[in-house]
Amino acid sequence: MTATLPTGSLDGPLDAPPGARVDVPPPLRLGRLRLYARRFARNRSAVVGVIIFVLLVAYSVLGGLFTPWDWSRQDFLALTQPPSGSHWFGTNQGGNDIYAQSVHGLQRSLVIALSVSVLTIVIAAVVGAGAAYLGGRVERWALALIHFLLVVPSFLILALVSNRVSGDWRVLIPLLTVFGWMFTARVIWSVSTSLRERDYVLLAEFMGVSRWRIVLRHIIPHLGALLIVNFTLGIVSTVLAETSLSFLGFGVKTPDVSLGSLLADGSGTITSAPWLFAFPAGLLVLLTVSVTLIGDGLRDALDPTSMVGGRA
Amino acid sequence: MVRYVARKAIGWLAMIIVATNATFFLASWFLDPRSNYRELRPVRTEDQIAHALAPYGLSPRWSVVHRWWYWLSGVVLHFDWGHSPTGVPVNSEIPRRALVSGQLILLGVVASVVIGVALGVYTASRQYSLADRATQTLSVVLFNVPTVVSALGLVLAAVWLNQRVGTTVLHVAGANTAGVDGTWATILDRANHLILPTVNLTLLGYVGWHLTQRSLLLDALGADFVRTARATGLTRTQAIRRHALRASLIPTATSVAFTIPAVFTGAIITETVFGWEGMGRYFTETIAKNDVDGVVAVAAFGAVATAVGAILSDVATVVLDPRVRVS
């Protein structure tokens, strides 16, 4: 790895005699985002993660254009056919095209995962940082709520409720959000408690900035790196939770499909029709691995003390 | 120590009671036992359905509180956990299933922790070596493989192996083979059935322990007290084993409890894939069949498993951490 940035002191050599002209290389100034991008781009596996993720998103959005088959249409002349020219990923017992179903299922899983992760990170940041800064009764109640939600059988409640609403994927978003924010909130809370006494927070207090404004404008921005990394982790855990629920028959249900319900379809015929399992499973693993690689890259790029991203 | 454990146990008992009763109300709210009779032919009237459900304390004519009181008095007075809407006693299902799931979860947790912590310690003391990088990559990939995919992948692999060898080397379905007699044959048969589900739970469980134990031990290796230990003349291995390792095990021990719910969730899927009649299967079946009492029993089992894990990790913390004094 070659770092090309000049790392000398920006003011020029101190031991130069006064008045002497010294050729000082112009200081290289990068905007913060440019700097993060450079650090991120040096991490090869993270770049691979971004490429895979972008391809997956493109596949889920545009993949349907390349096939004449619709995810819900049945081809009764091709039941349980292995991958072929007309059905690229094969067909299932009902004659559904697995390529088209994978496009649709990936779309469902992605939309659910992204929206749940955005919501959970916002809730976790506000509750975690708010509890740490405001302290007192707010903190006690917030922590009690977090601990309570951590020990309730959340998977059971998720299954109960999503079973009742009979497979409407939109209901999964608020459900997975309600049971997904606590752990991140606890991490953010424990990091924020050390920010409470920082000089810049005290200064803002002396300047008369309101308490919630301090939380939103001074404490939460300071946690940016942590929030972004936890956002990517949230995507992975949401995808896993949604897949598990749908696999067991509680989350997304027929006639709708998600990657989890596709896996459930394929699990019964895993030896006789392995393509029903292989394609959704491959997409799922690519999705979670790519997001994790991106998360690792972001962590190293955003963390000023990390040396993995190279110098500067 | 005994008093400390007893105090913790009482706290967890209260938590179990609250969680179980809350689940009863949730389940009564979201599950409708009548639907088991609505699909029957000839068509039942609402009166007939209510009449059929009444002996099991599930009558829709009763208020939720009334049904709850019936259920609670059954549990407290006779340890009777109720009936399914079709009249199967929950008590006849639980002991067998709890045993099946209990051994799966216990083996899974123990194997995950032992393998993960051992790998973490091994790789942390050889940071950036080939072994470290290889296991790290493997763990990151495994961390992202959903339970469903790994379980089905194991099934595929085992089926392939069995076909290659020509006999059933590894069983892929059920907890035991019907018609196996004799003590040793039964034990061997059951052990064989246990292999794949346990491997599945371990594959997914060990990763977290590996990665956290590695970073914890790396932090501890850089700490002043380890340098002091080296300065007193200990070798690097001794310093790691006696000082760094012990300090870095404390956070690991405290977090065992919080992984039990995740292991139980993993066990639900593992049991579904491998066809085990345990609590996990019971979980999906009871929800699908609107079996309120069964769902509550599953919730109670999950809460008990979490509590046992939490108490064990508290004991481990006390043993490991000299700063925690209980007497």
TrEMBL record, chain A:
The chain crosses the membrane at residues 46-66, 110-134, 141-163, 169-189, 223-252, 272-294. Keywords: Cell inner membrane, Cell membrane, Membrane, Peptide transport, Protein transport, Transmembrane, Transmembrane helix, Transport. PROSITE patterns: ABC_TM1. GO terms for cellular component: plasma membrane. It is a multi-pass membrane protein. Residues 1-21 are annotated as: Disordered. One of its GO terms (biological process) is transmembrane transport. SUPFAM superfamilies: MetI-like. It holds the Pfam family OppC_N. Residues 106-295 form the ABC transmembrane type-1 domain. InterPro entries: BP-dependent_transpt_permease, MetI-like, MetI-like_sf, OppC_N. It is found in: Cell inner membrane; Cell membrane. Belongs to the binding-protein-dependent transport system permease family. OppBC subfamily. This is Oligopeptide transport system permease protein OppC. It comes from Rugosimonospora africana.
From TrEMBL, chain B:
CDD domains: TM_PBP2. Residues 98-316 form the ABC transmembrane type-1 domain. Keywords: Cell membrane, Membrane, Transmembrane, Transmembrane helix, Transport. It is a multi-pass membrane protein. The keyword Mitochondrion does not apply. One of its GO terms (biological process) is transmembrane transport. It comes from the Bacteria. InterPro entries: MetI-like, MetI-like_sf. GO terms for cellular component: plasma membrane. PROSITE patterns: ABC_TM1. Belongs to the binding-protein-dependent transport system permease family. This is ABC transporter permease. It comes from Rugosimonospora africana. The gene is oppB_2.
